[in-house]
Design brief:
Radius of gyration: 20 Å
Number of helices: 10
Distance between the termini: 54 Å
Shape: globular
CATH architecture of the largest domain: 3-Layer(aba) Sandwich
CATH superfamily of the largest domain: Vaccinia Virus protein VP39
Helix content: 25-40%
Mean pLDDT: 87
Oligomer: single chain
Number of domains: 2
Strand order of the largest sheet: 6-2-1-7-8-10-9
Amino acid sequence: MSGPFPERGWIGAEQSQILVEAVHRLSGISIAPTKTDFLEHRINRLLQASGVANVVEYVNHLRLNPTGPAALRLVEALATHTTSFFRERAHYDWLLAVGLPAVVAEGAGLDRPLVIWSAACSTGAELWSAGMVVDGFARNRTLRWDLVGTDVSQKILVKAAQAIFQEEDILPIPEDMRKRYLLRSRSPSGAKPRYRIAPELRSRARLGWANLLDLPSAMALTADITFLRNVLIYFDAEDQLRAAANVARRIRPGGYLLTGHSEGLASPPPGMTPVAPSIYRKE
């Protein structure tokens, strides 16, 4: 490791505590202050790019500007963005067989647009996977529908909007969907091709920044089906319930919330009833 922080152990206990508290305050992400190896690995480059002399100087800057650009960049550095196409495939099978017919029966896509929300969309693989399923379902029907993706990282939202993926990323996508929804780049000889989500899906998507623990009351969003997966594991138990409740308030009655199979909530969000593993219905 080069630069002004060459040795392990350059983040002390006090600095570690301030760093993790800043991240939790802005994003809800819970990181143990004892994970100094993780902190050092993730923010070494960030600190060097900030041009500070040492971590004490950086922490002092955070104290003076707890919600400023430096704090937001800290969240970017420490957030983990693990996602893949058609992850937890059973949810997409349920979406096609049960979820979409149910919300359409309630008027979604007919009386008003059907809205699918990926509440922690990361690079967009979950959002685009859902879009492929909805498009296939809607192909022989006259349905209006939209995609919404939100995330706490501005940097990752840029990647999601670009919707460009490597060859290894698209392997979970069924072959027929690859042909329909992916555009293959023309790569120089010997270079691996890249793939971009087709315009017919990209044109339906709205992407924006959101902190799930502090969703603004003026947020113009009411969803029919919401994915809240593989993000609650980064929150403590209290914040898991708070985030789920915030998201549930933006789901239309008769709509559904999908959480990760490994993210069992201590209790259903207010107004929601479990109907299948990791799936809740808004009453």
